[in-house]
Fold:
Amino acid sequence: METVGEIMEKLIQKVLVQRGECPECGQPLYGWRTKNPDGSERCKPTCMQCGYKALRVQEDLQTERIYNESLKARAINFFKGGSVVPNQALFDCTLQNYQIVDQETRQAVEVTKRFVNSVLLGNPSHLVLTGKQGTGKSHLAMAAAWEVLKRSNYDKKILFIGLQEMLDQIKFSYNNPELRKTIEGSLIADIKTADLVIIDDIGSELGKDASDSRAFGINTLNSFLDARQNLATIITTNLLGEELKKAYGTRTISRMFVNSDGFTMVFSQTADKRIKPVKGAIA
Structure:
């Protein structure tokens, strides 16, 4: 009389066929001998010894891929949808297309890379880019944002805020209840809590003379800086030390430069790339 094991072995040989070896235990993987009418496998191969299922692994990999794609899409949508930028072309700025034209721009890239590494280590670092117009400060700020986003596997909330554009939106919202609700209810809250925020072109909201700074702009900027003292932040401005101090006062300057040791860059030599165009450069 045949044993149960022998009967099962004959059944296996009759309806199943070996489809390789199990990556877990090295025993045979079996699949159905007959296929679907369209020629496809009825199911993924299975190991009789350890229960390994190629289908399960495939599904796990697919689930992980879908999750990662969803995480990436969500992070990019938050970044692009929540940011307030003067020019959508800014989103095309990366470290790869930043043009190094002299020693100063080379140094700026190195400072930016150090900042990115610091942020990825969880430090509340501040990167401050100041100096001449058209030297690529906004470009570097955006490039840093993309580096942090990509290297964190899109697990960071990041916003790029053009200060002048942001102030204009806030003012405009006073006559638009829905817009005001959006700005005051979520955007400002996100600015104060996101993992990384770029506050771009500080000083652009001032009058022709830096001493003509407006209380509204200063108060709004201070509210952002107060909230971001212990959060990663990038500041860009065309103003230099004394100009900044005259326009905003020591309190604001202190908030800007907190946690910025080793992460400040003053552009004083690089030519304005908007006068002498350099491909791929944005101020």
Residues 83-267 form a domain with the Rossmann fold fold (CATH 3.40.50.300). The chain has eight helices and eight strands. The longest helix spans residues 54-82.
